[in-house]
Design brief:
mainly alpha, two-stranded antiparallel ribbon
Length: 163
């Protein structure tokens, strides 16, 4: 609306809006003209839109930072899982029984292979997949532990109560 208003009309609207704000009585707007009320509504909507845009931006930024932190933590946990499984593998007694060799396992693409017929690369794919799952489970468990800490610190029952 203010785009089509003359400069003097806009100055008048600004003065009327300032008077309402200065009065400290929000209900006094009901005594103003429709043009003043309409301009107040337009300005309010514009300011709320800006606030929402800023909040959305902050939310996206926080989500990106959280995802980066989780991604880094998962990579570190995956590397630790690899160290653990490699160390454990060196301590295993190697008995490749007929029963084990006849068994099958799934690769990340869904293909099933037998223990007897799986290549070194296929075993590596499966081991990496399992280490990734273990790291993901540890990351999820860590997030739950963080939630528990926050709940206990705030003395509330649910995360929804923290808002």
């Amino acid at each position: 609306m203010s785009m089509t208003l003359s400069k003097s009309r806009l100055v008048d609207l600004n003065e009327r809006i300032s008077a309402v704000v200065s009065s400290g009585i929000p209900e006094s707007i009901t005594q103003e003209s429709d043009a003043v009320i309409e301009e107040c509504a337009r300005r309010y909507i514009a300011s709320q839109s800006k606030l929402r845009d800023r909040a959305d931006g902050r939310s996206r930024e926080a989500t990106a930072k959280f995802n980066d932190a989780v991604g880094g933590a998962k990579a570190r946990m995956r590397a630790k899982a690899n160290l653990i499984t490699t160390e454990l593998a060196h301590s295993l007694r190697r008995e490749w029984s007929a029963e084990l060799l006849a068994g099958t396992f799934s690769l990340p693409n869904g293909e099933r292979v037998t223990w007897a017929g799986a290549t070194s690369a296929q075993h590596d794919l499966r081991a990496s997949q399992l280490e990734g799952l273990a790291a993901g489970d540890l990351a999820a468990a860590a997030i739950h532990r963080a939630a528990i800490d926050d709940l206990r610190s705030a003395a509330v029952a649910t995360l929804g109560e923290l808002r």
